[in-house]
Amino acid sequence: MKRLIVFDLDGTLAPSKGAIDDEMCKLLERLLRLIQVAIISGGDYPQFEKQVIGRLPGATDFSNLSILPTSGTKFYRYQGDWQKLYAEDLSSDEKKTIEDAIERAVAQTGFQPEQTWGERIEDRGTQITYSALGQQAPLEAKEQWDPDFSKRKQIKAILDKTLSQFSVRLGGTTSIDVTRPGIDKAYGIRKLRDVLRIPIDQMLFIGDAVFPGGNDYPALQAGAETIQVRDPNETKRVIEAIVAVAR
Known about the structure:
Elements: E1 4-7, H1 22-32, E2 36-40, H2 45-51, E3 65-68, E4 74-78, E5 82-87, H3 92-109, E6 121-123, E7 128-131, H4 139-145, H5 150-162, E8 167-171, E9 175-179, H6 185-196, E10 203-207, H7 217-221, E11 225-228, H8 232-246
Parallel strand pairs: 1-2, 1-10, 2-3, 10-11
Antiparallel strand pairs: 3-4, 4-5, 6-7, 7-9, 8-9
């Protein structure tokens, strides 16, 4: 049995930008009573509060939960309240370089949709995230825009060249995450090892994008055992199996 279970968020624990449902709340609360849990996502900390933390029951053992926003570039632990342990912030010049390159890459591919909902390029401090349909796009529209990742893979291929000094990953249903090089979910996995003193071979990572170019793939590259899931419903079945073994 592993000592730490690490989850992706969007597409793994919850629909993109959506909150975990009642069944997932109960499963996570049960899991946290038995074992250390961490969540790594491209979203910033307020998204974790909305999607996960604020949904869990008040009796949840938050001392067993680690939160790593923006692909592991930030780390939060519960110590009476949630405390930020570190943040790898981008400089103003780095942010402008990334944002300009994204605009050029999208224009070059011609994949900018006619309708968008909210901000398309979001500054998350430690990460710049491009959301093709905007941050507030409805889930149905997002799921239909790039279901096979083909559009974003073409945008990423351009960014890999123009932003070679950064790390470019595909995440969520319509997004691309850009951080400093080497600061991704592999970085987060290593930080979990250092902070929690748990060897990487004692971690299990669960995510929906554990493939080359996916933003969950660095967890596999870091040496963590991984399970790729299709959606939150499949994740629930995995958690049930873990709880059954851990009890």
